[in-house]
Sequence to fold (1115 residues):
Amino acid sequence: MSLIKETDYGTPAATSENQVTLTIDGFEVSVPEGTSVMRAAMETGIKIPKLCATDMVDAFGSCRLCLVEIEGRRGTPSSCTTPVEDGMVVQTQTGRLKDIRRGVMELYISDHPLDCLTCAANGDCELQDMAGAVGLRDVRYGYDGDNHVKQRDGGGEVNARFMAKDESNPYFTYDPSKCIVCSRCVRACEEVQGTFALTIEGRGFGSRVSPGMHESFLESECVSCGACVQACPTATLQEKSVIEIGQPEHSLVTTCAYCGVGCSFKAEMRGQELVRMVPYKDGKANHGHSCVKGRFAYGYATHQDRILNPMIREKISDPWREVSWEEALGFAASKLRAIQYEHGKESIGVITSSRCTNEETYLVQKLARAVFLNNNTDTCARVCHSPTGYGLGQTFGTSAGTQDFDSVEQADVVLVIGANPTDGHPVFGSRLKKRLREGAKLIVIDPRRIDLVRTPHVSAAHHLALRPGTNVAMVTALAHVIVTEGLFDEEFIRTRCDWDEFQDYAEFVADPANSPESVETLTGVPAEEVRAAARLYARGGNAAIYYGLGVTEHSQGSTAVIGIANLAMLTGNIGRPGVGVNPLRGQNNVQGSCDMGSFPHELPGYRHVNNADVRDIFEQAWGVSISDEPGLRITNMLDAAVDGTFRGLYCQGEDILQSDPDTKHVSAGLAAMDCVIVHDLFLNETSHYAHVFLPGSTFLEKDGTFTNAERRINRVRKVMAPKNGYADWEVTQLLANAMGAGWTYTHPSQIMDEIAATTPSFANVSYALLEEKGSVQWPCNDSTPEGSPIMHVDGFVRGKGRFIRTDYIATDEKTGPRFPLLLTTGRILSQYNVGAQTRRTENVVWHDEDVLEIHPHDAENRGIKDGDWIKLASRSGETALRARITDRVSPGVVYTTFHHPATQANVITTDYSDWATNCPEYKVTAVQVSPSNGPTEWQEHYEQFAARARRIEAAE
Amino acid sequence: MALQMPVQDVAERTAAIADENLQLEGPLLPILHDVQTEFGCVPEAALRVIADKLNLGRAEVHGVMSFYHDFRQAPAGRHVLKICRAEACQSLGGEDLADGMRKALGIDWHETTADGRVTLEPVYCLGLCSCAPAAMLDDEIHGRLDASALEAIVEGAER
Fold:
């Protein structure tokens, strides 16, 4: 292991297919047309000195260090801004160039502190490197003149040019005295992140980097993505962790454990201490970009709240007792076996985690199927993207997004439905914004005005701010316009889809009841706007749909997914780059946990348990007989628990009490069980009802793979030993073996080999292949040995694409006089899901409590002012939180996040769910909002209960 | 006396000015000019409104505004005197001329006299090198100056 150093080519790669040949320092080199001379030189291994150029942003030509001489041209052009030409003869090092470069460096250094030995960037400073490269030996100007370096001049007078260090951001510092004003940070913020939070203020010698309007980083629009820190060639923008620890000495490439984008990072280490996470340029999902969570919010891994020893208790009213692994596993195994003996083998089950690796998930469902001998396995994907699995499976034949993320670079029209990429999937959000700045058109369908609707240099062509719960009506209305105005792609439909089914579908959508004019009363969106959006989607060129939980978490979630698939098939937007249907997955391994057979009716690879051939494969491999009856879903497990027939649960890495809807129902189910095993990093909310707590390991402490939203299988690499003693896959194996399974895995690669041997879409996947390719997108088998960036290229997986009618049926959750407002929920950039991780990092400076967004009109009616405590009540329950008055939400709609357990927004949500998959209807709840003077009785009661449940007996 | 402008008025007036210029190609500079004409400066509250109207980051608007010295953060005095400090004027006594004026007015560069009558600004070349040393009072340029000529010009300006 050593520190991975990535080559900086200075300017971005050119994409032209034409090759141009030139000579640099006597070496002939061929590069794509449009490549800069600097990049061409670097590709032959010649490093031209540079400061303002880096390959994450476009060439700028301001530092005057990268000058070259070109035969037949006058002067000394900058190599970063000069494109290559055929036959060009370039010299990168001549007497004249040497003199100029030394002169330039002298000027830089004359306004830069000479504290290299005590500087945090020592060893990782491009200015230092360049001083060495150009042979700087002397600075003739001295350091007494005008400067930005010294706080006071020689006479003790205050230096008006000096600016103090800005330490407002929790993760990095801005030290203006070290800044060389190369503007790499400004350009990274604009070009890569697309936030435009930085600028160069003033001019000439007075030029300075300014966040916002001469504000601190924290007050500015900065979203702390870290792109500027990465771009900075000096210690001006520096991670606080590097300042504190020092430079890293080795690194490993791994995959972020937050959202479904699945960014690749270099975990840069010093011994077993993580110094920093740096986005990896070769990562095919993120191409060297990151967000505040993946880049900085890893502090939870070493947080004091982490539980490192197994614990057990007889009753949930007892305090926890720390015990050995052996005792905890023996206790759990005998309890589970006893329950099965007494109540039958169907009386226990598992919940797999979308946060854990594929290998771990595979083992947990294998535990249910091969050791418990039932199919009682479900996963948190149930509550987010199960309708995606159903809808895309029915229409296209496979449960996955159709594109890779790179595809967005070729989209002309992007339709975002019920997703908020700049908050939920920030790195994809940045890539999308980049494409929109290049001219692609945007349609947003969302009840709330998400940032993408209007953010610097990006604005949506159409924002259809529909009433929550009317997605299906809206999507069908779009199809109505496409069909009745003849905007569909007949050739595509005839060759790729079932024509009869299309005709049936066309007849259905053409019904005037489905016209934008008719559904206007349901959706609240003007018909003309819907028609314009439909025309743009159908005729705007390559059109791509990106959708999120705002589509799936409804009583008609599966219908909406089918409607979306219909739109793509109608317009022929499937099977090539730039188009497609893309579910934005909430968690790092939602895709993987579904692929691995976590659902009660499906074995790995989405194959139904009643399929004898498939059962046969696993029966052979595992040496057991597998039940052909689908098992229980999470909600059914809880119902059965209340009825007394389901009594034991192994829940890995999921906090169902906080994340699942209708908290009171969940707690009643958990309380009724005899043995709840929680396997997690922290004593989460679910653990209050647990009898066994098995400490989990973080993504930094284990090997494995995550599969992201584009079906990309990325490696997770162990960079430190598990603080709790075992990686999660080892814990599951120990539990299985305590129940007599006799598993003998010694490395996750063996588990992947078993997956590949039993699951056709993973047939060619192995750790060796991942090592070689970096990552692959499934299906990866003999017909697509290198994986499949884009699916359904020559035909749908299921054969012919299938159109299905999408009747709109209003949810049973209706507003009325008692509950006149509609509550919808979402997430925010700095926090993640139930917040178990991000709440335990400095990210709380951006969001330390959940707030309720309410329209000024609704607030005024109720006498509510910004920041007031309000009571939020639904038919299920009530909670209290503070109000934020904003016109981001429409009148009649309120919005909140569910990151903080103190709020427990899911006390409010109901147990209505998707008709096909039971995915809960988080996105629509009828509520009432009224002034309040603090937390509700329930919240206070719960807080006391949680404190009691978390007690750990003092060690003897 | 410079009166404080209520933030609300600045926002409303700036929004109106921005709307008038939105159809222009590159409307930012014309808007900044009109805002300065309106308020005698470009108040911070105006920058936020301009950023919003043009869908730019507020940092970008601040970057442009701060690049040009003539866009002011606070209103100037009733007259603005700019004295050239570039090479040609320096070679013909420009520095002395400037020092004399600073003493006469009792203020330094970028400052305004206590009565709010004159603001003194340096300028680097008025394009009048053949008539150095040169200065500009409000919109009028004056060449071949000496201390008494410049004083007379400033004295002659409206009170």
